[in-house]
Amino acid sequence: MVGGGGREHALVRALARSSGNPRVVCAAGNAGIALDADCIPIVETDGPAVVRAAREVGADLVVIGPEAPLVAGVADALRAEGILTVGPGAAAARLEGSKAFSKEVMLAAGVPTARAATVTDVEAGMRAVEEFGLPVAVKADGLAAGKGVVVARTADEAREALEAMIERRAFGDAGAVVVVEEGLTGNEVSLLAVCAGQTVARFPAARDYKPIGEGNTGPNTGGMGSVSPVPDIPDDLADELVEAVHRPVLAELARRGIPFNGVLYAGLMMTPDGPKVLEFNCRFGDPETQALLPRLAEDPLALLTSVADGTLADRPVQVTPGACVAVILAAGGYPGTPRGGDVISGLEAAAETGAEVSHAGTARNEDGAFVTAGGRVLAVAQLGASIPDARAAAYAAAANITWEGMQMRRDIAAGL
Questions:
Q1: Cβ of 307: how many Cβ atoms within 10 Å?
Q2: What is the CATH number of the domain that holds 29?
Q3: Element of type H or E holding 25
Q4: Residue 352 domain-assigned?
Q5: Please, what's the b/e burial string for 290-303 (b: 16 or more CB within 10 A of its CB; e: otherwise)?
Q6: Residues paired with residue 264 on neighbouring β-strands, in sequence order
Q7: Distance CA 200, CA 194 (A)
Q8: Cα–Cα distance measured from residue 321 to residue 85, given in angstroms and rounded to the nearest whole number
């Protein structure tokens, strides 16, 4: 497993449950992942280093969790050495690494999406705002850890976002190019599928909650919670969305000579005019993974191996009935500058409830206690017979955990 966040912890745990009883090694992992896997200190975007680590442990399969190693071509480096890998190569990972490229592919593939303009200066961006009308989404073209999107409801907010990205480089080089996109209304949904070439096995729909504040208020984060299934996206509609979104994009990439083996995640807005793609990710979502994997009713190692070796069957992924809700616990100051070093209490009590607690941003202090070491610190996930049951169980488990400045949205999956 390549990565060191909550998604990777959830994947490590899922793989460890395989009937094949695999040894799971994580590069680089974190303090919580170290409870469930051997961790190797490594720079995740360093392809040769990842290859060496895979060789040293005799890895039969490498699963790449985060987007940065994919965009950096780590999957290409592994495949060049004949190592089975889950994760697209750099050419395909541009679907996530460049929002402008993603838009271009969607248009070529006939995938429904919002009107957009790609700009490199503020005034060109403001002309697009005037053309599309308000609200608009202002998006850094490159990777920005899930935080490079501002939904501007006034012209002043749009100009401020453009200036922050293009002139002040709030997201570094990721904001040198900006995509201005017309605002869409409706319910958002995440539809993830594992793909081998043009073969697709989709997961049930999930929903994540991006803004820091309850009622979807405040700045965007990497995600403050997730739920699966989503009542307004039943399986038959999910199948239709795969036909309208995933397959055309995979076919367009294939037409360009770009293979795709990994996870294709479509972030969709269910608008009054029909579904439209907001973005593509090329890996498991975080925190959607924490709500999807506990429901998995088939062997995760066999599933991911079939993605890597091209034997994947075209079908829905098998899941248990019921629901899963994952609640993110975040550090004080997030999504700005998060506080670090705050001692976390109640982890054992939360685990005793049966919750799956995934570590995203934790470390150990000199006394061996877990402390905060990131923005999103933990994910607390619980299964239930229904969404309200799973939601109540997740919040009951999360109530055991505390640290100074902890943030938690209390409306994840409310009303579903």
A1: 23
A2: 3.40.50.20
A3: strand 25-28
A4: yes
A5: bbbbbbbeebbbeb
A6: 193
A7: 6
A8: 30
Residue 284, both tokens: 């498991």
Domain boundary among 316, 348, 366: 316
For the stretch 386-416, pLDDT in tens is 999 999 999 999 999 999 999 999 999 999 9
- The answer to whether residues 194 and 303 belong to one domain is yes
Q: Rg (Cα) of the chain, in Å, rounded?
A: 20
Percent of the chain topping pLDDT 70? 100
Which among 47, 140, 44, 141 is positioned nearest to 94, based on CA atoms?
141
The residue among 206, 397, 399 whose CA lies nearest residue 293 is 206
Q: Quick one: average pLDDT of 257-261?
A: 97
Residue type, 41: P
Q: What residue numbers bound the domain in which 203 lies?
A: 185-316
**Residue 6, in any domain of the structure:** yes
Domain contains 408: no
- Three-state SS sequence of 330-341: ECCCCCCCCCCC
Pick from 326, 346, 328: which is nearest to 403 by CA? 346
Here the tokens at position 203 are: 């997961």
As a whole number of angstroms, the distance between CA 348 and CA 362 comes to 15
- Alpha-carbon distance of 98 to 91, in angstroms, equals 11
- What distances in angstroms separate CA 24 from CA 12, 20, 140, 301, 357, one per listed residue? 7, 11, 35, 11, 18
Model pLDDT for residues 125-160, shown as the tens digit of each residue: 999 999 999 999 999 999 987 678 899 999 999 999
**Reported pTM:** 0.95
DSSP 289-306: HHHHGGGB-S-HHHHHHH
Rounded Cα distance between 222 and 267, Å, is 13
Across-strand partners of 324?
Answer: 228, 383
Contacts of 183 by beta carbon, 8 Å cutoff, 6+ apart = 114, 132, 133, 134, 135, 136, 137, 151
CA distance linking residue 392 with residue 390, whole number of Å: 6
195 pairs with which residues across the strands? Answer: 200, 262
pLDDT digits (tens, 9 = 90+) for 234-245: 999 999 999 999
- 83: helix, strand or coil: coil
Q: Are 62 and 84 in contact (CB under 8 A)?
A: yes
Q: pLDDT class for 219, splitting at 50, 70, 90?
A: confident
Is 49 in the same domain as 125? Answer: no
Same domain? 32 vs 7:
yes
In a domain, 110, yes or no: no
